Amino acid sequence: MVEDIRVVMFGKTGVGKSLLGNNILDHAKFPNLGCTQSVTIDNNRGERVMSKYRKLVLVDTPGLHQRRTTFESSCYFCMEPIKLTKPGPHIFMFVLSIGRFTQEECETIEFLKNIFGSHVTDFLIIVFTGKDTLDYDKMDLEMYINTAGDELKSLVSQCQGRIAINNRAAREEVTKSVDSLLQMITGVHSKNKKKHYTDKM
């Protein structure tokens, strides 16, 4: 029997979320035009075989705060992808861009906790795109987090893992980064005893 690991990606428009999803799946499933406008209109689901006995199910979502003006509509937006991961996701993946962290991103985690409950952080991984910026500045991810301010440090302290990826690096580097991310995903999955998120927790 093949085991599913179900992952939902959240992130603002323009952070490279869909391209990251394509790199994780190792094929072009999600639309990506390399622009600052939202390309993902609806929730979109893709799959990747990880082994003979394990499969990754990845759901891409429209950019956060796009065209949503009420709390009710935002709740609907956040709950909709859960339907594509029945009976529930194992991982929530929050995608940020190096150098583009704002108060809005910080508030997003609190927003997700208000919708899903505080235990959502037990299933949360943060992926930073734009690792090439760190490489240029001769910094690693931990150095960046420590110099980025208390808000980012607080956000990172709540998650179960973090990693930086250069979506547009050479194929070999992208593959290595994705492999590290997949190991992190399976690690959190095992840490949670393979339980998926449920609002009844």
UniProtKB/TrEMBL annotation:
It comes from the Eukaryota. GO terms for molecular function: GTP binding. Keywords: GTP-binding, Nucleotide-binding. Residues 2-201 form the AIG1-type G domain. InterPro entries: G_AIG1, GIMA/IAN/Toc, P-loop_NTPase. Belongs to the TRAFAC class TrmE-Era-EngA-EngB-Septin-like GTPase superfamily. AIG1/Toc34/Toc159-like paraseptin GTPase family. IAN subfamily. This is AIG1-type G domain-containing protein. It comes from Lottia gigantea. The lineage of its organism: Eukaryota, Metazoa, Spiralia, Lophotrochozoa, Mollusca.
